[in-house]
Amino acid sequence: MRLHILYFAWLRERVGMAEEDAEVPEEVATVAGLVAWMGTRGAAFAQAFASKTIRCAVNQTFAGPESVLLSGDEVAFFPPVTGG
Predict the structure, then answer these.
(1) pLDDT single digits (tens) 7-36
(2) In 1-84, which residue ranges form alpha helices assigned H by DSSP?
(3) Which of 12, 18, 20, 74 has the maximum number of C-beta atoms within 10 A of its C-beta?
(4) Contact status, residue 32 vs residue 69, Cβ threshold 8 Å
(5) Could you report the per-residue pLDDT of 35-65, keeping only the tens digit for each?
(6) Does the structure show a pLDDT above 80 at 83?
(7) CA end-to-end span of the chain, whole Å?
(8) What is the largest CA-CA distance in the chain?
(9) In terms of C-beta density within 10 A (0-12 exposed, 13-18 middle, 19 or more buried), how is residue 27 classed?
(10) Residue 42 CB: number of other CB atoms within 10 A?
């Protein structure tokens, strides 16, 4: 499955890129599976995706861990947003 992945704020800094097109293993079917796989991609990814505060959007809609992914989806990872 091919996904377009966007990284925002400190996630972008830690993984060293703002976006990428990634070929994801077939067994990755949900956001939770993608997060787990991302943590296996090297030290920078392991550090970035160890945080439990990462938020995700799929095709510009907030997505929970159980959200199903389809080839061609755009997935964005970002820290929680606070307002004031």
Answers:
(1) 999 999 999 999 999 999 999 999 999 999
(2) 10-15, 31-38, 43-48
(3) 12
(4) no
(5) 999 999 999 999 999 988 999 999 999 999 9
(6) no
(7) 39
(8) 41
(9) exposed
(10) 12
For each of the domains in the chain, give its residue range(s) and CATH number, in order of start. Answer: 2-78 (3.10.20.30)
Given CA atoms 26, 75, 62, 82 in this order, what sign does their dihedral have?
positive
Token pair 């966007």 in the structure block, residue:
6
* Residue-by-residue DSSP string for 31-49: HHHHHHHHTTS-HHHHHHT
CA quadruple 75, 2, 36, 66: dihedral positive or negative? positive
